[in-house]
Design a protein that fits this description.
12 helices; 6-stranded parallel beta sheet; 3-stranded parallel beta sheet; 9 strands; alpha/beta
């Protein structure tokens, strides 16, 4: 029965990193990857957001330019996955069409706006490359915003801008204009709250968990969850063990992930929560070690008491709704 339900769902994983440098093994599959085409097929994952991850480096001209060059190369690889089995999609209608045709839908994303190299106009180029969301930060403050986790190795203090910088506010507006969702995963609470205030579209947390259940700086507390709800956005509970339960309590499982989904659904509503893996970027929990095991998430959500209608919302419906709301008319 679970397999029948899982097969019928439009399953979407909202945050997966691509390995870098690229090895050209997405289509053929590799034991070194948690996500590739064979594993997506085996696990019944039909749509994925593939992120070009840019590590935070120093805020100097050379480092900024290197980040910009890297993100363009990575997005080139993501867009290059298009073939008769994979559709790289810029609009939700295209995602649904690809899935109906039996293709895997790929949605390009960027992790860390350090990728812009400090240049507002580069948002236009990212939009042209099909990017549909971008995290404002990764670990470490950048030119746009404060991160939830400062990096002492880069000389970070607790705060740099007190949330969004002036450039950060401009970038949020430019992202809104292009239909690129503002992703607050990795952002400091001050950044997140200000982004929700300045964004004209719903904000998202593409790979975060509930701080009430696990006190980790990368998670959203109840005040943040309520603000996200008020923006119309979604939080995608992610398969990062240390975000789901304290490390001292052992490795997290799909049951813990489902418990976070339940908490958020009860706190701010079922329409504001989804799931993500952060595979190939550190995500891995008991029961969901790679894309091939994705049906185990459905099993855990059913065991938590969610209905089939609720599963459709959690497994992609909510995230696709927000993506569609942001699309330029």
């Amino acid at each position: 029965m679970t397999s029948d339900i899982h097969t019928e769902l439009l399953t979407l994983d909202s945050h997966i990193d691509i390995p870098w440098p690229d090895r050209g093994d997405f289509a053929t599959g590799s034991p070194l990857r948690q996500v590739d085409l064979p594993k997506l097929r085996e696990g019944g994952l039909k749509a994925v957001c593939l992120a070009a991850y840019i590590p935070q480096t120093r805020r100097d001209d050379a480092s900024r330019e290197a980040a910009w060059e890297r993100v363009q190369a990575m997005l080139g690889v993501i867009n290059g996955l298009q073939d008769d089995r994979v559709a790289v999609c810029r609009r939700v209608e295209a995602v649904r069409g690809a899935v109906a045709e039996g293709k895997v839908a790929v949605i390009p994303a960027v992790e860390n706006a350090h990728a812009l190299g400090g240049d507002l106009t580069r948002v236009d180029r990212l939009a042209a490359l099909g990017v549909r969301y971008m995290t404002l930060t990764h670990n470490g403050h950048n030119d746009l915003a404060d991160a939830a986790i400062p990096l002492a190795a880069l000389g970070d203090e607790t705060t740099l801008h007190g949330g969004l910088s002036a450039l950060g506010r401009q970038v949020v507006a430019r992202m809104n204009a292009h239909g690129i969702l503002v992703d607050v995963s990795h952002a400091a609470k001050s950044t997140m709250m200000q982004a929700a205030e300045h964004s004209t579209h719903p904000i998202v947390a593409s790979h975060s968990c509930a701080r009430a259940l696990c006190d980790h700086p990368r998670n959203l507390d109840d005040e943040q969850l309520l603000r996200l709800r008020d923006s119309g956005g979604v939080i995608q509970i992610t398969a990062m063990s240390s975000f789901l339960k304290p490390s001292a309590e052992g490795r997290a499982s799909v049951r813990d992930l489902a418990r976070h989904v339940r908490y958020v659904a009860e706190r701010i509503g079922i329409v504001h929560v989804g799931v993500s893996s952060d595979f190939d970027g550190g995500g891995q929990i008991e029961g969901w070690a790679n894309a091939a095991e994705s049906m185990r998430v459905t099993e855990a959500l059913l065991a938590e008491g969610f209905s089939e209608t609720e599963l459709r919302a959690i497994w992609g419906g909510n995230f696709l709704r927000v993506l569609q709301q942001a699309e330029p008319r």
